[in-house]
Amino acid sequence: MEIVPEGKNFRLVKEDELPALADFLVQYMPESLKFHQTIQTYLNNKVWDFHFYVAKNWPEDPICIHFPGCTSTPNNLTYESVTVFCPSDRVELVDLLTTEDILLDLSQPLYLNFTHEAIVNRFEKYYEAQDKIAGDVYVCDNPPEDTSADDLPPDVELVRLQPEHMKAVHDLYPASDIECREVFEKLVAELPAYGIFVEGKLAAWMVQSYYGAMFSMQTRPEFRRKGYGIYLARRLTKEVAARGYKPFVVIRPENDASRSLYSKLGFEKRFRTVRAVLHPR
Q1: Helical pair 33-45 and 18-25, crossing angle rounded to 10 deg
Q2: CA geometry: angle at 149 spanning 165 and 261, to 5°?
Q3: Residue 268's beta-bridge partner residues?
Q4: CA angle, corner 25, sides to 22 and 26, nearest 5?
Q5: Given CB 3.0 to 4.6 Å as the disulfide criterion, which of 127, 131, 215, 242 pairs with 209?
Q6: What is the pLDDT of residues 110-158, one digit of tens each?
Q7: Which residues pair with 194 in a beta bridge?
Q8: Closest CA to 84 of 41, 113, 50
Q9: In whole angstroms, what is the distance from residue 183 CA to residue 191 CA?
Q10: pLDDT value at residue 1
């Protein structure tokens, strides 16, 4: 699909401008963390072909977006999904996107990846948000030093994952409707990803995402409640931080087990995000 260099209210950011954009976003941490680290992984590893835009009146209007917002949508169109950042006290800037009729087809649904809930609330003035999923962002400022797995049983191993493991991972990934298997294969080829293997069988896993988060911690049902998650989380937290990223996770509010696990590692809640399909009113 042709990439549009300029919309009604936004312009495409050139690749050599991206470091400056990332630097500018630091002042809005932690709210800008996900967008900032998406730029960082794009510049470092290019695991997916994202296109970044800023408001034409940037930086006075500090709103930025990237397309696609996720790696799988019903029609797999570049401008069918989006990720948005603006400061939560400037949510009126979202109106620049809800009136953006060059980049977007405003008559069609828009797939919104995890975005600050204040931004989603503003979208709901113009869209009906369906299939909403909330996720709380937890951030770790002091990664654990001890990542040893020496006390695992002899038949259990902590192993770096490879692309050939990704079919099993993607098949059990709860958001496989918005993230394609191909992106998982690219992630594990470029970014940290680990699995717990029991007698040679993949039992649990965790991956660093294209937006810098630690995500997709999954355990096969028959291997749950054995404490494998803490080994994965400790190892990935330390490695993500060592690569220059701020470790963070998105935890659904009802997921008490994940919240307990990450709290033990020093993760603290910062804000709530929402994923949704936006249907024009």
Answers
A1: 150
A2: 85
A3: 139
A4: 95
A5: 215
A6: 999 999 999 999 999 999 999 999 999 999 998 887 667 668 888 899 9
A7: 160, 206
A8: 113
A9: 11
A10: 67
